[in-house]
Write a structure and sequence with these properties.
Blueprint: E1 2-8, H1 15-27, E2 33-39, H2 47-52, E3 56-59, H3 70-80, E4 85-88, H4 93-102, E5 106-110, H5 122-137, E6 141-144, H6 147-156, E7 164-166, H7 185-191, E8 195-200, H8 209-220, E9 225-230, H9 236-245, E10 252-256, H10 261-267, E11 270-273, H11 282-289, E12 294-297, H12 302-307, E13 315-316, H13 319-331, H14 333-337, H15 340-347, H16 352-368
Parallel strand pairs: 1-2, 1-4, 2-3, 4-5, 5-6, 6-7, 8-9, 8-11, 9-10, 11-12, 12-13
Helix pairs in contact: 1-16, 3-4, 8-13, 11-15
Length: 369
């Protein structure tokens, strides 16, 4: 048995945390692997979900990302020392130092957190050389969650010679019938017979929900369509004001945070993810797994890489192009429904089981050295 310990900072609801949770759940089904998780600090709404995986969970109880108390570092190192492979998912200095002290092989997964779309803080500048040193001198293998993330990484670190590979992100696909995801009842009542255009997203700058709203405004007056915005975040009030200013309030529903995201996505007839420079796009895979037409923009990064091989017409260049594509699906219900099985089949390539199998190959290769 290969003993693997995943290292993340905390259990907040986020893309990295969710990926690690699903990966741990998948790896627990593999009799060749013994799986555990070390949190820098065991806080977050996602902790009950991690507990439900049945994996061994520990916390280093660091107060901050720069808590270098020797007692805590030593304790964290002892927790990690029983692992054959340490799999780090985010660079946090005390966790990195604790992993290095074990002298165990370290896999680092770059999840594409490149700080696009936000102003860099002093801590970002301070962490960059520390992160690079950790990667260069301590990490045995770097993996990327998408081809796009790998491309950005290599641009930032030209000449990198350490072993690298792409192990694409995945979601829980196909374990239960995706067609059986029941739509949220409250949203079904609101939707009525309208065509529902929607997104599920954190309301942050790089998600560019404003572009979806602007595109919807171009076609809303001419079609029986409604706009469903699922999620929350720092721009929630700004988005709410934009909806009001464009006269879309009566045709738009902003749900705020929902724990039943799949049920909300199931209500949508057309799904849109207008982000720029997404490292991957788990929500995009989710909607494809539900058989939904999914539109992205040409500079969507990992989103574009996912959608283009399936349907290049669903990759648009502008707000006007997005509006035209939304109108196309409003006018052609058969285009929404007929290819649904093709979309579901395509999404299965991103099953978390494939992600788990990819990482297992990395672990085995490291231990053979």
């Amino acid at each position: 048995m290969i003993r693997v310990t995943h290292v993340i900072w905390r259990a907040h609801l986020g893309g990295i945390e969710r990926l690690v949770h699903d990966l741990v759940a998948a790896q627990r089904l593999d009799e060749d692997l013994g799986v555990s998780v070390l949190f820098g600090t065991a806080v977050g709404d996602f902790m009950p979900a991690f507990q439900a995986t049945g994996a061994s969970l520990d916390s280093a109880d660091f107060d901050t990302g720069y808590d270098l108390a020797p007692r805590k570092l030593h304790r964290a190192s002892r927790m990690l020392a029983s692992a054959d492979v340490i799999h780090v998912h985010t660079f946090v200095l005390p966790l990195a130092l604790s992993a290095v002290a074990t002298r165990r092989p370290i896999v680092f997964t770059e999840h594409g957190n490149f700080s696009f779309g936000r102003k860099l803080r002093w801590s970002d500048y301070a962490k960059r050389p520390l992160s690079r040193a950790f990667m260069k001198h301590a990490v045995a293998h770097v993996t990327f969650n998408s081809e796009y993330t790998g491309r950005v990484w290599r641009q930032r670190y030209p000449g990198w010679r350490s072993p690298c590979s792409v192990v694409e992100n995945g979601i829980l696909v196909g374990g239960s019938d995706e067609q059986g995801v029941a739509p949220a009842e409250d949203l079904t009542t609101w939707a009525g017979d309208s065509v529902i255009v929607g997104t599920s997203s954190r309301f942050a700058t790089f998600k560019r929900i404003d572009r979806l709203i602007d595109a919807f405004a171009r076609c809303a007056l001419h079609r029986d369509a409604k706009l469903l915005l699922v999620g929350d975040g720092p721009l929630y009030r700004d988005i709410e004001r934009r909806v009001s200013r464009l006269g879309l309030t009566e045709r738009t529903l902003m749900t705020g945070f929902r724990s039943d995201v799949r049920a909300c996505q199931s209500v949508m007839d057309v799904c849109v993810f207008a982000s720029t420079a997404e490292s991957f796009g788990l929500a995009c895979v989710e909607t494809l797994a539900l058989g939904k037409p999914t539109i992205v923009l040409h500079d969507g990064g990992g989103l574009t890489d996912i959608v283009r091989p399936l349907c290049a017409d669903d990759v648009v260049e502008s707000i006007a192009g997005l509006a035209d594509r939304i109108l196309y699906y409003c006018d052609h219900p058969e285009a929404r429904t007929r290819p649904s099985e093709e979309r579901r089949a395509y999404a299965r390539r991103y099953d978390i089981k494939n992600t788990a199998a990819g990482f297992k190959k990395v672990y085995i290769a490291l231990l053979k050295k």
